[in-house]
Amino acid sequence: HMMRFQLFLSLWSVTSSWCIKKICKVAKTKSKKTLATPGVKNIVLVDGVRTPFLQSGTIYANLMPHDLARAALQGLLNRTGLPKDAVDYIVYGTVIQEVKTSNVAREAALGAGFSDKTPAHTVTMACISSNQAMTTAVGLIAAGQCDAVIAGGVEFMSDVPIRHSRKMRKTMLSLNKAKTLGARLSLLGSIRLAHLAPELPAVAEFSTAETMGHSADRLAAAFGVSRLEQDEFALRSHMLAKKAQDSGLLSDVISFKVPGKDIVSKDNGIRPSTMEQMAKLKPAFIKPHGTVTAANSSFLTDGASAVLIMSEEKALAMGYKPKAYLRDFVYVSQDPKDQLLLGPTYATPKVLEKSGLTLNDIDVFEFHEAFAGQIMANLKAMESDWFAQTYMGRKTKVGAPPMEKFNSWGGSLSLGHPFAATGCRLVTTVAHRLQKEGGQYGLVAACAAGGQGHAMVIEAYPQ
Prior knowledge:
Blueprint: H1 2-30, E1 43-50, E2 54-55, H2 65-80, E3 89-93, H3 104-111, E4 120-123, H4 129-142, E5 148-156, H5 166-177, H6 181-189, H7 212-222, H8 227-246, E6 256-257, E7 263-264, H9 275-279, E8 301-311, H10 312-317, E9 324-333, H11 343-355, E10 364-367, H12 372-382, H13 385-391, H14 412-415, H15 422-437, E11 441-448, E12 452-460
Parallel strand pairs: 3-4, 3-5, 10-11
Antiparallel strand pairs: 1-8, 1-9, 2-8, 5-8, 6-7, 9-12, 11-12
Enzyme class: transferase
Pathway: Lipid metabolism; fatty acid beta-oxidation
Domain Thiolase C-terminal: 320-459
């Protein structure tokens, strides 16, 4: 009996040890901790859509920004079946403002058929304007002010405001106030040919007067990013975007009937090329030795996006199956001269620490691709202990995202970059990739003019 008992104990010990190891292994691979915080509202992304992103001056050329924003709002309503009166608030981002629709969120909302009782406001933060719109929505819900908010972004580069010169504007304003014919004639007589020269807008820093492309070129040079590396990354973006488009993965894109034109249902800037063709292009900003070209930069784009953000409680009560939780986020700000486009490098470690995660915990990365040189410089900075210690006050580097998890459905270089609409595209893409790939955590990061940046952690909603 004693021998049988000892044999039983021995077998039980081996078996239980094996079981515990298997359970631990499954637990380790199948599930990570959730970022839910006791006593804090869970805020969810229910769904997100966007109009096709089109190269400026093409099919959208005769529209206005609020037309695109309205189309995105209507597309979101159609996709979700959301009753318009269930929306408590609407926030839209935009960068280059159309003066006729200065609060484009309000005009788009009214045009889309929302009640005139639904408040709407517009935010601007350069290329992270719709990121700001989304986090504003998160704040409204977290504060208990709202349960359902639509956030979005729109940019319309086909028609940007071109102003008269300052002297001409002053003369015209004075003419408007002049009470006598003599005063008017005197003012008209003061106009010179030089006064008629227009002021053209430029994607340039006000504080440094440097164009963003020029900054990107200097940044690439500072981090030793070659022309070859930039062209290779741009080609990768276009090839992955083409593959995703052909495979039907870009499901956030809605069809849009352009008045007087055909129905548009695809982004039109995705153009895989060859390294040989790309190598023929001349530098676009620093001539003749620069490395930034039209082929490895994002192009001028028209487009709009919209996402439905709700408290989890409200979403479930309305019968929705959310796509993702919106978790921790940060905004960062650096020197706009030498570190204009390094937002992701600064924001990524901060948001990871805030979440209690490491880079290895992230399954999906979606970074905004302003320029291939900017992305490559960020990846090199993130891999540098020296940069972390010298500029960021950190002991060690955060590490660069593994490329197999990075922008795997294309990015701004290929899909297009309507400045204020990109943030919502990034977040919606993370949610869709997490669903498709079975991951738990995604990370969005983006740079913006003014030396600013943003990062957010997104957690997959349990399937």
